[in-house]
Amino acid sequence: MAYPRQPLFAPHGAVATSQPLAAAAGLAVLRRGGNAVDAALATAITLTVVQPPSNDIGGDLFAIVWDGERLHGLNASGRSPAALTRERVLAATGGRGAAPVEALGGAQSAGPAMPARGWLPVTVPGAPAGWRDLHDRFGSLPFAELFADAVGYAEHGHPVSTGVAATWSRAMAGHAGLTGEEYAEFGRVFAPGGRAPRAGERWRNPDAARTLRRIAETGAEDFYSGGIAEALDAHSARTGGLLTGDDLARHTSTWVTPVSARYRDHEVWELPPNGQGLAALLALHILDGSDLAALPLAERLHRQIEAVKLGFADAHAHVADPERVPVPTEALLSPGYAASRRALITGRAGVPTAGDPERGGTVYLCTADPGGMMVSLIQSTYLAFGSHVVLPGHGFALQNRGLGFRLDPAHPNAVGPGRRPFHTIIPGFLTRDGRPVGPFGVMGGHMQPQGHVQLVSATLDGGLDPQAALDAPRWYWHAGRSVLVEPELVGTAEGRSAVAELRARGHEVAVAAEPAVFGYGQAIWRLPEGGYVGGSESRVDGGMGGW
């Protein structure tokens, strides 16, 4: 029989993420005297090398930091090029836009969409500036020291882990039909020998090592206004891109105040828009009116699925760049609005619509240190390898976050110049009466808010430790009444009975064979007597370390 992974207990500090070498890099920093932010940055930077299908130097980053007294949020997502307009997109796609992308889910993927690959969905990468800005505010070790493991793995190579190899192989199928000049470098860097590296094969990326050194030595300035920026500008101009050196030079991260919703006697924290964290908070706010722990499994699942649908409907209707369009965050999270949405849940599966409140491929990691500082951080290029545009001689792919824009000019999230698109990556944090419990996250596009809801419920309703909560069978709602469940959910008589009842209520339930759709997560909780307990994803190469 297969034995479940056990939670990790650590007296001093801990690191959890989706790849063991990256977790080890963060733990090494903690043991050298670095704090949780130093460890998070070492982990995040290493992840760009050891898990490149899911994140890269050319991606974005969001983070929540508990500094020992309060929470801070960093939105290190990039904005669209100044030349990006709806007209440019329509002209490049024959006036029709592209087919909707499954990963966006629900109403967000309805109708014509932004292209998923190439230059059009490329936005300014925010991760390098995010690393610098987190370090400038909270770091304790020298910035360049945090790059050591990442540079070493890129320069000298590392054996590719099993889960990463599987994701990499699947991504190659999507690259096969991309033939423009902008894609030429991808094969040299990410498909040596014409294929993805297999598990255990050694993969090197010396170009990325040089790029990381330049970011480390210049505090990321070279990326936005130096030699790397000049190379990006030239490659874009030569191959039909819209990204310019001016777009890079104008980039800034934004410090934000996290937003929360009560669930049981806890507070669940997410970052405000342009991320989709509101979807998780809206769903939890709705569910807080039910005693899920006392309900039969079928009723519990039904209410969770319906609450998630309503949360997504509102997020897809209202989330946009708050610097451009006011987002009614406070109204959406008001108790009265939650009650009105809760009242829409019946005993039958519904198809959600957005309400009208009063207006006024990804990696996740978490760290905790002996002083009580904790970090929840997520970064991504989106889908697998993002845009598949790779800067020659620099070893990294550019993200395709512009895919999150809408082509409807009346939508708050309409495509346009200098805007941050709807973003799927969301770090989470849990507190109780203002005291920290810990960071958590579940990566995976449209799955992320659903994963947050399920992890929080498994913890607070089910009383599970972080590892058991992460290992619990998951469900995934995409659109309409369609729901996927993991095979483990129907592995018991109770689970089979619950799925049968869900189908009787109108849910179109199918059992999924592919684990990737259910996301990958991590969590670290503080222990009452000091120290930490944490868990890391067992569906993939989850890694965790502590001491």
Number of distinct helices: 18
Strand count: 19
- The CATH architecture comes to 4-Layer Sandwich
Strand order of the largest sheet: 1-18-17-13-12-9-8
Poorly predicted segments = none
The structural class is alpha+beta
How far apart, in Å, are the first and last alpha carbons?
30 Å
GO molecular function, one term: transferase activity
Keywords: Transferase
InterPro entries: GGT-like_enzyme (IPR052896), GGT_lsub (IPR043138), GGT_ssub_C (IPR043137), Ntn_hydrolases_N (IPR029055)
Protein name: Gamma-glutamyltransferase 2. Threonine peptidase. MEROPS family T03
Description:
This protein is of the alpha+beta class. It has a single domain, classed as Gamma-glutamyltranspeptidase, small (S) subunit (Glutamine Phosphoribosylpyrophosphate, subunit 1, domain 1). The protein is 35% helix and 17% strand. It has 18 helices and 19 strands. The strands form four sheets. The protein has a seven-stranded antiparallel beta sheet with strand order 1-18-17-13-12-9-8. Helix 2 packs parallel to helix 5 (148-156). Keywords: Transferase. Pfam families: G_glu_transpept. One of its GO terms (molecular function) is transferase activity. This is Gamma-glutamyltransferase 2. Threonine peptidase. MEROPS family T03.
